[in-house]
Request: fold
Amino acid sequence: MILRNIDIVNFKNIAQATLEFSPGVNCLLGMNGMGKSNLLEAIHFLSMARPMQSMPDNALVRHGQDLMMVKGEFEAETGAADTIVCGMAKGKGKSLKRNGKEYRKISEHIGRYPIVTVTPGDSQLVGGPGEDRRKLMDMVISQAHPDYLAQLIRYNRALESRNRMLRAGVRDTLLYESVEAGMEEASALIHSTRADWVKAIAPKVSECYARLSGGHESTSISYRSQLNGTTLRDLLAERRQKDTVLGYTSGGTHRDDLEAALDGYSLRRLGSQGQVKTFVVALRLAIFDYLRETSGITPLLLLDDIFDKLDAARVESIMHEVTGSNTFGQIFITDTNRKHLDDIIGAIDGPRELINVCEGEFTPLTTD
Reply:
C-alpha cells in the first residue's frame, strides 16, 4: 500500500499543503519545529483517525482556525485507489469519509490502511507507564483484528460502569455480577488475543534486535497479566471488597503490561539510551512484519528523527534493514541533517523524494 498524495488545511502549523509522494522513500529535511513531524502526524491521522501521540483531536487544528482537513489517496497493491477525507469543524466534531461516503463508525476505518510509526517519544514504551504499552498493543491488534476493538470498547464501558458503582458505594452483589459478566466475556477475548500477539511478536523483536545490534546483545519481551492462570470472574470476586474501599477496579485486563529484557536483565532499569532506542525500533519493525503478515497489506512506515541517541553503526544497520530489501514499501523519514538523508538516498536504487520543510511549507529538493 502507498499514499499517493495528501492535501492538508489548517493542520497544526501547516496552513495549506498539497504533496505528491514517492512510492519508495520520502525524506523530509528541516530544523526542529518546522513541520516535519506534523506532516507525519497528518499521515497517521489519515490512516488511524487519531493523533500519533496522546492529545485531544482539537489540538490538531491550527491555532486561531475553526476547521481542519486532511485528504489523501491510498493505492493498494492491486492498483485500486481510495480517497480518504478526515476533518474537524468547531462545534461539529470529527468527520471521516471514504470515497465520499461517511463511515457509520470510525472503528470501521481502523486496519484498512495500516501504519507503523517510530517517534522520539517511543522510549516511553520501555520507561513509561504500563498504559503506554497497553495502548500500543491495542492499536496494533485493532489494525489486524477488527473484532478485538469492539470487545475492547465493550470491556471499557463495563469497567467504567463498575467503577461508578464502586465510587457510589453500591453493595449489591447481584448488580456487580451483572456488570462483571459483560466484562468477563470481553476480557477473555482481549487476554487471549494479546497473549497470541506477544507470542507472535516476541521472536520477531529478538531477531530484529540482534540484526540491529550486530548480534552483541539479546532481548526478549513477555506478557504480564493478572489473568494469567485465572479468570476475570474469580479475580473480581476476590477483590470486590478491596475495590469498594479503593473506589476503582484494581484487577483486570486494563492492568496488563509488557516486560522487556536485555541479556536476561530488565531493559527498563539497566538499558542505555542507545539500547532502549534500538529496542523500540526493533519492536516497531517487528510490528510492521506482523501487520503485513496478518492483514496481507504492506503498511506505511514513518521514521521520525530516528538517528537521535544511536551510534553510526546502529543507524547504518537500521537503514540497511528498512531500505535494503523488498519487505518495506513506502517509507517516510525525517531529519535535521541533510548529509544523513543524502546518504540514505544515495544508497537507494528505487524511487525516492527529498523534501525541504520550513514553517509548515514543503519544497521538493534535487536528489542528484
About this structure: The chain is about 45% helix and 25% strand.
